[in-house]
Fold Transcriptional regulator, LysR family.
Amino acid sequence: MQQMRLTHRQIEAFRALMLTGSFTEAARFLSVTQPAVSKIISQLEEELGFALFERIQGKISATEDAHILYSEVEQSYRGLDCVKRAARRIKNNSGGSLHIAVMPALAVGFIAQVIKRLYEQDGDLELSLHGYGSDEIVELVASGLFDLGFVTTPVDTSQVTTGPVLSTPSFCILPPDHHLSAKREISVFDLEGEKIITTPEGAASRLRIDSLLSSLNISRTQIIEARWSLTIAELVQAGLGCSIVDGFTASAFAQRGGLVKPLVESLDFSFTYITSKTCSKTKIVKRFNESFDQEFKTFKDRLLSNSFIN
């Protein structure tokens, strides 16, 4: 069986004719003469072994076979357009895709501001954002399923590469009309005997809080454990207890009208970003982290000034 010898020029002429429906317009589209287009199409039909156009009373009409072929041609052109766009993004240091896994505290609201800032600079970037626990994030990033992750510290660095350690102060969130609501700030001594809602045992934030309370010999009635910071905030708002939370959760809680008080004692919530040891998207990760750092600086300044508290 003789092999077809199709040329790029023939496919271009065929596509132009399908798009314009006229030899004259196709010629103008390709910047050639009308006879040239007619000759190229005739050669293409001869090479294919079937007719692409019917010529009736000076007008052309695409055959059913032409429509079938055209759908394949368009798929190829769409693929080529994707390659061109990718090349343009690489040249302009923009676009691309990034899969990010974040701990629940960041997913509450802060990360949306980071993404908004990033998209103001690069609207072509494709992002996929998912929330997981820190231990899960380490495994997902190490396996390559996610390009970037944000987790609480400490982190096992045998599987991933870590960025700088960042931190926010902790705050106390209270139910509406709580008897401590009149206080300007809350000490952990104020929480003696209070019902406390916390993260589960083993969680980094739980370990820090338990260590602080134990060191000061403070007892409390713990009634509910919840994995996600957003769930903890909802339980507090429902009047089921108090909680000590990170700055991200406290800020989101205050925005919804919740009662937030600075914590007298120093209790930092520390976290970092991680990538796999074989990360191939260093440019995109760097752009994201630059936006993160800019937004985080503004956010932390606001936390330290307590200006977000109602």
